[in-house]
Amino acid sequence: MLTYAPDDTLAHRLDPRSKLAVQIGFAATALAHTGPRALVALTAVAGAILVAARVSPLEALYAYRYALVFLAIAPVLAALTLGSPWIDLEDGIVSARASYRVLLILFVSAAYVRSTPVRASRAAIQRTIPGKPGQLLGIGVALVFRFLPVLRADLRTIRDAMAARLGDERGAVDRAGTIGVLGLTRAFERADRLALAMQARCFAWNPTLPALAFSRVDYPVLALAAFLALSALL
Amino acid sequence: MATHGDSVDLVDGTVVRQFARAAVLAALLGALGPISIPLPFSLAPVTLQVLFVFLAGLVLGPVWGTASMLLYLAAGAVGAPVFAGWEAGLGPLFGQTGGFLWSYPIAAALIGAIVHRGTDLRDPAAVPLPVVVLALAAATVLIYAMGTAYAAWLLELEAWEAIVGFALPFVPGELLKMAAAIAIVNGGRLEPIQA
Amino acid sequence: MIEFRSVSHAFDDVTVLEDVSLSIDDGEFVVLAGANGSGKTTLLRHCNGLLEPDSGEVLVDDTPVSADLVAARSAVGMVFQHPRDQFVAATIGADVAFGPENLGLERSEIDRRVEASLEAVNMAGREDEHIDALSGGEQSRVAIAGALAMEPTHLVLDEPFTGLDDPARRSVLARLESLAAEGTGVLLATHDLRDVFDLADRVIAMRDGRVVVDEPPDRAREALAGLEVRVPSRRADRP
């Protein structure tokens, strides 16, 4: 599992907004191009971005191994043809190129994940999206990070308890229903307690926002983001 | 201390409760993400996630159900390992499962709108069964239409290839999740927060 | 000062608080005793306006709570049961900063308060640690720090020792004791008085929504019998 790790790389020093902009620019142009020359250029950019965050390509591949399976199957599915000649290599190659650019998009997002702590992402959200939606989205994202391990433990407990009570022999609907209702009931009990605690600490629409400022290194990166986005139109 | 009172704009108690539930449900969806079983003949995983997308619309309604799904996507985009296979980042939102992920907020909104018919929440157990079934069926069609169409476009697949890979294998699973959602709602153990 | 004047509260026709009057001074360490369901939690939630009385009035520093919720919530820091569900961020520093951020304070002042609050609960310098990796006692102390960062005059705690083992309980208690010594009023609700009895300046006990005891500990002992609360044996009786 790829997560944030403290480090002193170029990517770690960038403003999270610059990094988000680059990702969006990169995705835009990658979604627009599947030609061989474009793929070579995109590979070079993605490689540079990984280096800037000190993420090895193998590590990134491993983080997205699950997606990798699907990206590998797609060209096969595309190549298969009903009836003679059964395999259409041309179709398969087109799909393989399309799959490859998805992999590059995933690589670029790995660099963000490794180099950006939650508080920086929250700051980027709250400083980019104005008003109440930005405040809720920023705090809400922080809450998801906070409650993820808590709810994972809840689900583990529920499944262990079901297995202990011969839950494996029960019907699938029953099982899904039990996980659903127990999972959600517990989660909502936690949410109700959380809501009280947030109110007690004056949860407000207009808090002091986390500090965030572009520095000199951000400007060339923003220019890169703009260039990537514009190249989608080429 | 009184000086704060003039400028601090407190979030209303009902909103805090709805928001907390939306955020925790988003985390629950993320906690389920890794519990996914890749099917040998399919490109998309079977997870219980869609069940909770249903429940978001049914229990939280069109506004907070949608908000919950958006929080899920946003948290995943900035690095919470909440997508299938513990994945995180903006990439998966553009990747082969992107269409499925983006359909979640719309599906929750659709279910919420059909079942609650507005922003005042009703107890879904009191809504006629055919309406609930219709809402869930419509949401399922939407999720698979968006998921399959995007994957087909992204990976240069033909429509039938994408349908065989991304939709058909899941019909039994989806029927199961709809049945589970209806059973949960009719169990009456999850009451929505009335404004 | 927190003051209740003839406060009553009912949930769906069930009376939970009936004609409660009491006052708690700054710097006082008060234990609120009573069995489960006696109305302790409901009473506490009136201190900062999470609940409003059906009749009567609650005042914090002579201002009705309902007239200035922000002032009441700043003056009365509250820590609930299940600290695990009270955190808004994955890391300690980000969570403790939540209250002061909501008050709209300058970033430098927020940082100062986070530092001071963590120091007050013996967690100094641990801002970047993950809350999920902490022990139960440490989580309790971070929850207390989150309340302290509002710089309250009173700290209100609901069954803070639930689920804590002995060393953790002692570590929390030691912090509360020193906070009270430094002038923060403490109002602590519990059904188990054994650890807190000797620290208390006053014991208030409830039964069926009414205040039935409001005395210094040495005089409250007799009256507490029969209230389904655990009271320590007399000092002289102990080995």
From TrEMBL, chain B:
<dbReference type="InterPro" id="IPR003784">
    <property type="entry name" value="BioY"/>
</dbReference>
<keyword id="KW-0812">Transmembrane</keyword>
<feature type="transmembrane region" description="Helical">
    <location>
        <begin position="51"/>
        <end position="73"/>
    </location>
</feature>
<dbReference type="GO" id="GO:0005886">
    <property type="term" value="C:plasma membrane"/>
</dbReference>
<feature type="transmembrane region" description="Helical">
    <location>
        <begin position="93"/>
        <end position="115"/>
    </location>
</feature>
<protein>
    <submittedName>
        <fullName>BioY protein</fullName>
    </submittedName>
</protein>
<dbReference type="Pfam" id="PF02632">
    <property type="entry name" value="BioY"/>
</dbReference>
<keyword id="KW-1003">Cell membrane</keyword>
<keyword id="KW-0813">Transport</keyword>
<keyword id="KW-0472">Membrane</keyword>
<feature type="transmembrane region" description="Helical">
    <location>
        <begin position="127"/>
        <end position="153"/>
    </location>
</feature>
<comment type="similarity">
    <text>Belongs to the BioY family.</text>
</comment>
<dbReference type="GO" id="GO:0015225">
    <property type="term" value="F:biotin transmembrane transporter activity"/>
</dbReference>
<feature type="transmembrane region" description="Helical">
    <location>
        <begin position="159"/>
        <end position="185"/>
    </location>
</feature>
<keyword id="KW-1133">Transmembrane helix</keyword>
<feature type="transmembrane region" description="Helical">
    <location>
        <begin position="20"/>
        <end position="39"/>
    </location>
</feature>
Automatic annotation (TrEMBL), chain C:
<keyword id="KW-0547">Nucleotide-binding</keyword>
<comment type="function">
    <text>Probably part of an ABC transporter complex. Responsible for energy coupling to the transport system.</text>
</comment>
<keyword id="KW-1278">Translocase</keyword>
<dbReference type="Pfam" id="PF00005">
    <property type="entry name" value="ABC_tran"/>
</dbReference>
<keyword id="KW-0067">ATP-binding</keyword>
<comment type="similarity">
    <text>Belongs to the ABC transporter superfamily.</text>
</comment>
<dbReference type="GO" id="GO:0043190">
    <property type="term" value="C:ATP-binding cassette (ABC) transporter complex"/>
</dbReference>
<dbReference type="InterPro" id="IPR027417">
    <property type="entry name" value="P-loop_NTPase"/>
</dbReference>
<dbReference type="GO" id="GO:0005524">
    <property type="term" value="F:ATP binding"/>
</dbReference>
<dbReference type="GO" id="GO:0042626">
    <property type="term" value="F:ATPase-coupled transmembrane transporter activity"/>
</dbReference>
<dbReference type="InterPro" id="IPR015856">
    <property type="entry name" value="ABC_transpr_CbiO/EcfA_su"/>
</dbReference>
<feature type="domain" description="ABC transporter">
    <location>
        <begin position="2"/>
        <end position="233"/>
    </location>
</feature>
<dbReference type="InterPro" id="IPR003593">
    <property type="entry name" value="AAA+_ATPase"/>
</dbReference>
<dbReference type="InterPro" id="IPR017871">
    <property type="entry name" value="ABC_transporter-like_CS"/>
</dbReference>
<dbReference type="InterPro" id="IPR050095">
    <property type="entry name" value="ECF_ABC_transporter_ATP-bd"/>
</dbReference>
<keyword id="KW-0813">Transport</keyword>
<protein>
    <submittedName>
        <fullName>ABC transporter</fullName>
    </submittedName>
</protein>
<dbReference type="InterPro" id="IPR003439">
    <property type="entry name" value="ABC_transporter-like_ATP-bd"/>
</dbReference>
<keyword id="KW-1003">Cell membrane</keyword>
<keyword id="KW-0472">Membrane</keyword>
<dbReference type="GO" id="GO:0016887">
    <property type="term" value="F:ATP hydrolysis activity"/>
</dbReference>
